[in-house]
């Protein structure tokens, strides 16, 4: 019994950690946004953690400098709706909630505020389906902490179910489109076959009439 109680918090923590995440780094050019697409279901929380470094010619390495800003914007590709647009420090995080299912364009741009542009490297870690914080319970006891983890886990499971439902809807759309395409291809093949048979019959009748005329002459 005690062994099961000890394992339960570890299991909950492991499941909470098993969430959709994307970690990468890339280079930014001056006044040129770097954008990428992320397909999201509706009402999904996305949290991004970033750190921006610029090349220091004196130290000959990348360092974080506080006088550089990062402009972050998120748009829905379908209708070009701006989900969020803000400017932050060189190191921080951003968060938004998708309102519609579909592709979202996430853009990052370095701002130098008039000083010469340098090479910039950004580290980005995006977590999709992050559980919304529940601030209704402030008790820091072990029991309440475990209950909070369970609530977060339930929120995570709801996000997973929404993602699965969204993927099922997309699969149904692709299946309907595939069936429609196959049906049109079948009708087109049938039309081509009928046309070919008609042409053959016409040619045979034409040749028959031609040879009959030859015999009469």
TrEMBL record:
InterPro entries: Emp24-like, GOLD_dom
Phylogenetic lineage: Eukaryota, Fungi, Dikarya, Basidiomycota, Ustilaginomycotina
Signal peptide coordinates: 1-23
Domain GOLD: 33-126
Topological relation to the membrane, as annotated: Single-pass type I membrane protein
GO terms under cellular component: membrane
Positions of transmembrane segments: none
Subcellular location per the Swiss-Prot or TrEMBL entry: Membrane
PROSITE patterns noted in UniProt: GOLD
Protein name according to UniProt: Related to p24 protein, involved in membrane trafficking
Family: Belongs to the EMP24/GP25L family.
Species the sequence originates in: Ustilago trichophora
Domain of life, source organism: Eukaryota
Main subcellular location of this protein, as a coarse class: membrane
Keywords: Membrane, Signal, Transmembrane, Transmembrane helix
